[in-house]
Amino acid sequence: MLNLLRNENMKIYRRLRTWMLILLLIALTSTLLIIIHNETPALKDGNWKAEVQEQIADGKSALQSDKNLPEDIKADITDDIKENEYRLSNNLPPSDRSVWGGVLNAANLIIIVTIFTVVIAADSVAGEFGGGTIKLLLIRPASRSKILLSKYISILIFSVLLLGVLFGSSFLLSGFMEGFKDIGVSHIYTDNEHVIHQVSIIGHVIQTYGYNCVDLIMIVTMAFMLSTVFRSSSLAIGISLGLLFVGSGIDELISRYSWSKYYLFTNTDLSQYLNDSPRVEGMTLQFSIAVLVVYFLVFNLLSWSLFKKRDVAA
Question: What's an example GO cellular component term for this entry (predicted)?
Fold first, then answer.
């Protein structure tokens, strides 16, 4: 099994395309963080309390000057005011201009990690059929299940590598631009009941990346399944990325129906539970995990069953 895994990793990392994707990810991360750094106002004389007090005053002014604001916007402004007042009373500086603020902003690029991994996953099995190397692969004494498993694991390893590159590059660049002095700042958020919570910023970062990785795993597993079923990398990439971009839109359209909670993309964004804001009333983290496990098993069962039965001579 280790030899199979080593062989699959060599196929991935010997290609120039792989290293170009890694370098492109670093470039995109750097560009995003530099833009955000330049667009975010610096603290006046390093006094974050003055900035927070100004934000509180602006929020109260907005509520008083426009009485016709929608209720949801009023609630958001009120929550922001409460959070800022909590920061002042507890001497908690904002995390926006800290090293962790940059790392959290970089989490938005996990979708890029997903796209890059889908490209590799879609070519993993389909590329063997297209290049005619599948016969050479299957004459080995290893079972088809082990061969497919080694391909799947190598893809997951590649995704972990990209996540490490994203996290590491954002941490170092943010530290260089913002400094590492506020590495112990707290994360403040308000839940649906308008109750303020103070949690560890490191724990929040881990949760944010972890929850976003769920979408990554499901889309990549789907691409791997499609690559195995249709033996076409372009079709696997097209369908997977199409669903990645359209899936959330469909989620919005069907969210009014109770059965929408069983839809894949209603459950892939586990970050909805970070602030206790499920998309469909009654959904819980445990429920979403259970739904995702079912989809995950179905995707893999399709991949394994069809790959084991496929006639490669055809």
Answer: plasma membrane
- Rounded distance, CA 35 to CA 217, Å? 29
Give the chain's largest Cα–Cα span: 76
- Phi first, then psi: what are they for 240, rounded to 5°? -65, -50
Beta-carbon contacts of 89 under 8 Å, excluding residues fewer than 6 positions away, are: none
DSSP-assigned beta bridge partners for residue 196: 190
164: left (phi over 0), alpha (psi -120 to 50) or beta: alpha
Output the six-digit token pair for 128. Answer: 């063997």
Other residues' Cβ atoms within 10 Å of the Cβ of residue 259 = 9
Q: Which residue has the tokens 């008083």?
A: 64
Structure tokens at 31: 């560009």
How many CB atoms neighbour CB 76 within 10 A? 14
| CB proximity list for 248: less than 8 A, separation 6 or greater | 265, 269
